[in-house]
Amino acid sequence: MIINISREYLENEMKNIDAHPASFNIFRNKAEIIPLKIFDIPSPGANIIKQEMLSLGGDAIVHKNAVDCCIDASDIILLGTMKHYNIFMDKLKQMPYFKLDKVCDELKQYFSAKKPNSIKSPWGRTLTFDQTRVMGIINVTPDSFYAGSRRQTVEEILTTAQDMIQSGADVLDIGGMSTRPGSDPVSEEEEQRRIITAVKAIRENYSDIMISVDTYRANVAKKALEAGADIINDVSGFSFDKDLVEVVAKSNAPYILMHIKGTPKDMQKNPTYDDLLREIMQYFIDKIQYAKTFNIDENNIILDPGLGFGKTHKDNMEIMDRMQELKSLHKPLLIAASRKSFIGKALSLESPADRLEGTLAITALCAHQNIDMVRVHDVKENVRIIKMMEAIKCRRQ
Predict the structure, then answer these.
(1) SS3 of residue 258 by DSSP
(2) Which domains, ranges and CATH numbers included, belong to the chain?
(3) Is the pLDDT of residue 397 over 70?
(4) Which helix (H) or strand (E) holds 326?
(5) How far apart are CA 339 and CA 376, in angstroms?
(6) Which residues neighbour 217 within 8 Å (Cβ) at sequence distance 6 or greater?
(7) How far is residue 235's CA from residue 240's CA, in Å, rounded to a whole number?
């Protein structure tokens, strides 16, 4: 009998055969091929990289014309275990040419980076990422795409907040303006009135729950933080209000950085990408660097790939299938898929009211892949899904 052991159960199985505990880390480093993609390496450097990886027992995939240098540069897919990479980086240190020193630096940075295991608000409230967390959506709007999420009176807001908290929500996300495809913005005064009313009401009744505000406007974010909000959830990535970055910097509030292409008004008018994941990742890298120029703590940044924000159905499905690759930046990851149209298209369901099961399938996938947070309309059902997945995963311990 032969069993193909899953990576998650390798340590359990080493214990079962009574291997020496001191050897566990050695075997972990040998057990997994880690495919890494690097970009725009001069062809001579690409050939050196391939030969060095082959000499270590790994490999590298390069452009078909790199071997005879008929192209200037090649992207490269490295294939190696952690053991291979450690030796490979030592070799590259001795090669300050053809961008090989840059490759060495990037590999060292990649392997040394650690994702923050928590965020802390300016008010001292902390959210840990030891399992998938749930952000409950409360839209204080008359026109959000899912009618079931709309709450306009203080009584409705507080009843929903109570239900979500009792059902296990970790964060409540308050939105005062719809950003659905094709939507027009409301006035800043109206958005601020809606959000501040909700934040104050919730904070007066629930002192411990983390509150996120879904806004891209600096003044709204500032007033919401003063009213007791903890997190800024910005669909624009600092792009729609140049002053928002300073509000985030001065407050030291956790910030959700979302990828968007275009604006809510025009983002679904034939969005196209040459390389979807590469463009999203480069967007995040550029925005994080921009934030750091204002002394924003990058450990307080959460990434959201922006499902439905300048994406086709195919794009959304590819993002869901490649979530693990989005972890490459070592930042907490938020997935906001709840009841969105790409679920409706996949299941042939026109109404958002019919898309709960599709949403739950995505939440189960996120929990299985250790995604840090999901933003959802239906807290109770999503919390139960995550609890079930965590109960299964705890068997690995």
Answers:
(1) strand
(2) 33-112 (3.30.1370), 118-396 (3.20.20.20)
(3) no
(4) helix 323-326
(5) 8
(6) 188, 191, 192, 240, 241, 244
(7) 9
List strands edge to edge, sheet with 34-42.
34-42, 73-80, 59-61
Residue 221 has pLDDT above 90, yes or no: yes
> Average pLDDT of the chain?
94
Alpha helices in 57-99 (DSSP H): 82-92
Count other C-beta atoms under 10 Å from residue 226's C-beta. Answer: 12
Identity of the highest mean pLDDT range in 22-31, 63-72, 163-172, 182-191 = 163-172
pLDDT at site 385: 98
Active site includes 340?
Answer: yes
pLDDT of residue 285: 97
| pLDDT tens track for 103-124 | 999 999 999 999 999 999 999 9
What does the alpha-carbon distance between residue 50 and residue 52 come to, in Å, rounded to a whole number? 6
Asked if residues 244 and 217 have their Cβ atoms less than 8 Å apart, the reply is yes
Euclidean distance between CA atoms 356 and 340, whole angstroms: 10
Helix 100-112 × helix 82-92 angle, to 10° = 140
For the chain, state the CA radius of gyration: 23
pTM across the whole model: 0.92
Exposure of 332 by Cβ count < 10 A (0-12 exposed, 13-18 middle, 19+ buried)? buried
151 has catalytic annotation: no
In this prediction, residue 394 carries a pLDDT of 77
Question: One of 125, 194, 331, 375 is an active-site residue; which one?
Answer: 375
Average pLDDT over residues 6-14: 85
Nearby residues of 135 by Cβ (< 8 Å), 6 or more positions away: 169, 170, 171, 172, 173, 212, 334, 336, 373, 374, 375, 376
Candidates 340, 384, 387, 396; catalytic one: 340
3-state DSSP assignment of residue 9: helix
Burial of 70 (0-12, 13-18, 19+ CB in 10 A): exposed
